[in-house]
User: Fold this.
Amino acid sequence: MKDHLKLKIAAGAAFAVLLAALLAAITAMNALRLYDAVRYPEFCIVPLCLAYTLAFTRGNRDKALLACALGCTVCADFVMVLLQDYYEISLIFFSAAQLLYCARIQLCRANRLYSAIALPLRAALSAAMCAAAAAIMPSDVILGMAAAFYFTNLILNTAEAFALIKGGKHRILFAVGLLLFAGCDICVGLNVGDMAGIELSKDGLYAVKLLIWLFYLPSQALLAISAPLEKQRSKNVQSY
Assistant:
């Protein structure tokens, strides 16, 4: 048992060191404007996080939802970061990840009355934001609606996750991970803001490109470790 615990501690330390080195490399390459060369290191972020989650967190419905959400994020990054095309498809994968995080939150609450009220309200707000996006971006309606649906659900998930942080450190990690995720996507939105009439200076765009990954990597790392390790035991299955 002690050897098993030492292995997990060592793996966790290695995971942290690897991600720190990856963040340093990505930041340096973006600072040097090596935008084509940096795409493969950028893509490696979420697969590493997914591998850690699958290997070292306790197996239950919470872990399954987390792993599936990270898997959707891997697919989204493959399309957006490597293919650099079909951005609507990437946003669909990102949206699927947020719906899985929403399911994770509902699993934690285990309150059918709350879900019966919150989920229809979420659907209505998402529909309203999609309609607004279609009006703002008439030249690219599908992309605008997909982005609006995704970001609306990310913000709602972040708010709901912070409402649950008294439940323990894993819920804090989850909430902060989603908050950093939102910070990343605000930067992504500013980076392509010209599509919605938002213009940034060259220096502003340069700073935004750096901030995207300074938010994104920590966000995915925190989400990956927001499920309890296998050694932990709990009477409540909704324990993240």
